[in-house]
Amino acid sequence: MLRKIRIVLAAIFFLGIIWLFVDFTGLAHVWLGWMAKIQFLPAVLALNVGVFVGLAALTLALGRVYCSIICPLGVMQDLFAWLGRKTRKNRYCYSKPKNWLRYPMLVLFVVLMLLGAGGIASLIAPYSAFGRIAQSLLQPLWIWGNNLCALAAEHLDSYAFYSADVWLKSLPVLIIAVVTLVVLAVLAWRNGRTYCNTICPVGTVLGFISRFSLLKPVIDTSKCNSCGLCARNCKASCINSKEHQIDYSRCVACMDCLENCRQGAISYSIPIRKRKNSESQDRSSENIDKSKRAFVTGSAVALSTAAIQAQKIKVDGGLAAVEDKKVSKRKTRIVPPGSLSINNLSQHCTGCQLCVSECPNGVLRPSTSLMNLMQPEMSFERGFCRPECNRCSQVCPTGAIRPITVEQKSSTQIGHAVWIRCNCVAVHADHPCGLCARKCPVGAIEMVPMTHKGREVMVPAVNEEKCIGCGKCENLCPARPFSAIYVEGHESHKEI
Amino acid sequence: MSKISRREFIKRLGAGAAVVGTSTLAGCDSPTSSTSSSDSVLPDIPTDKMTYRRDPGTGTKVSILGYGCMRWPMKPKENGEGEELDQEQINRLVDTAIAHGVNYFDTSPVYCQGQSEHATGIALSRHDRSEYQIATKLSNFSPDAQTHEGTVRMYRNSFKELQVDYLDYLLLHAIGGNIEDFNRRFVDNGIMDFLKAEKEAGRIRNIGFSFHGQQSVFDQLMQFHDEGKYHWDFVQIQMNYLDWLHAGVQSKYLYDELTRRNIPVVIMEPLLGGRLSKVNDHILREMKSREPERTAASWAFRFCGTMENVMTILSGMTYMEHLEDNLRTFCPFTALSSEELDFLEEMAVEIMTYPTIPCTGCQYCMPCPYGLNIPGIFAHYNKCVNDGMMPASSQDPEYARLRKAFLVGYDRSVPRLRQADHCLGCRQCVEHCPQHIDIPQQMDRIDEFVEKLKQGKSVTE
To answer: What is the CATH number of the domain that holds A469?
Structure first.
């Protein structure tokens, strides 16, 4: 029964989060945005104390149910593990905790985060790893399916579906997603929750807490006949059936052992402490308690300091070919309004790709630079940052992109336009242009006269103080393949 | 714009549907008689009933329905890059037209991305030369084609493409911007003298011009005719029941001037590029309630045919059903009564109240050097206006639905890279538009409209 409840809840969360990532209409986050915001690491990065305390309390009460229900990467591994058990029953066995790996991994993760190399650190972060898989691999499938529906709708003259573009946002992220998926699938298939108990920083932190959880699977030694079935079906490899002991730091409270035990010897309950060991156990728990507290406060302090640091003959008809635009090489990358600064973004972002999959304008894509790997940045070949849209800021669970209103956004300067004389149509063609000036939503571009090769032409002049860096000029500029006007990012955003 | 409430819209739609429903049943005294027979419900079109008008100059019989070869059907190229004319379909259309007595075919070296003459030539050369008359044009629009040599080369090439050794009708294409333009293209380079000699040599039977533009230029050309400087055997003008009284240069004026001089008139744009066949629902209802079995297009054609000095009415029939519908209208043709003419004038006034853009989809503006699909953008906008699907106030309960329909439909009909926001105002298209639409201005206006919709704001025009 408990197992069934776990499975149902896990399915709800899993499908919900998948929908959140594949959805491109902006509908999912209205209903399910909270599912991303209650993820552990995003909540820590967002300094979302409520969620953090809530999850800690949940773990203290029920054990690592977070890992079995809320964490989408955990549920995904359970799926692969389930498939693995289909091919070979009773395939697991008890193994000792690999503390030599899990604690250094946690330390490495925290250090990398503090050094501002969040991009690299988040390679092993569970929620964002899942996000990358969903965004890179599932969203294209979803959109293609949608586009088929749109095609059908078009034939039926219905506007229920509209088609959306599928485009490769970043090859490295796609490769990372595929590699992550393959590695996790193989590990989960063979040994269950290996990743969660050796590499995952969240698993290690929650493992600290779950040792002291109120409710946990307990083996009743009076009933147990030491058949070992529980251990051979434990994906966390944490049941030492010979010693009748369970390593609660690794137990993800999946309740599988409860159902597998034919003697009914395992129950999910408050353990009754045996007198004999109680003293020593108390002491150890005290020690651990202290270390836990130290860790939590330490990391909180570390993270908050990180946050403070932040801030020919003409014929009729036919269509002229339109060359695709190429990405302008920017000195400073552009990060979305609401992210406050490049620093703030790098320190909070786990690279989960939720904003990237949400962006309806084809503007956000994951960075490919090593230090900011997988973190969002903007470019305007496919669209521009539309004034009425603030969806990335609404979905971001980590506070890397803070919620921003449409009004605030229109006065937030994230960069400024730069004119490139040698590309400009107005300079080289025999007719005027001025498209950038006419379409600028904040009126930051004015056409001014200039003499070019003895001929007076009108060229765009950017008012850098007024420009908010929305990229409309870059997007619409007729010069190809490189725009004659492009946006340079600002390290810190400011209100104008 | 005149707003239509949702209820009214649905009412009109329902009425339209009901009318269409009855039209297929009308005239069936015993419902079983037509459906039980093995023949199709629609009667066959007679092949010997085409109405002909006589060309007063040469005495030739010209079918009142002329085939405009500007809108031949296209198909994707086999290599997947772009489109080409669908020769097989064109052959079928030409065969059907000739079998029903159509004998006037109007083309130009620039139509259908320059492929029209070639394809028309292939289709027609399969018939006897006496069965059809060819009209083609001197379409020397680009400056390097405006020299004597360039123009003559274009002229000679038409013979080759059309596989003929004489042309029945040759038109100076799209005259009317200004008289200097006319002089540059045809007078200063000696082309008018050349054409005169060609006519005397029998390689051209009739010389005329097609007119789009300023009334002063038209008057000037008429004056040339009166003075005997140039003789116009025929003139092609844009005429239909909307332009008759409601255009910058009224068709009525042009028609009367030509009739006064006994110059036969060839009609182009009788449907305004489909605007008069795809009329607003409630106008269609008015028409159907008078003649349930006739299409809106047939009203427009009959209007032109009712004018007796009209020699032929050109229709760019892309599909067999267009051809068949037109054949039904003209085999034989029945003129409109004066009461029916008044009715059409009422409809014209009604149509003028809809803020559509007067684009006929002729593609003269294309290709836009910056890749915009100009006629596609106008067609989508007009469709929404005509269907009463224009979003207005954001407070309107229908706003969200109409907004979505407009924006989703816009992306469906025109790829984003080819939409109005990419118009940079180079104005190269403007001089090519025979309807004198200020295309860049309209592009800006439509883009403003789209921007407001995208931002969810009210749209008031």
So the answer is: 3.30.70.20
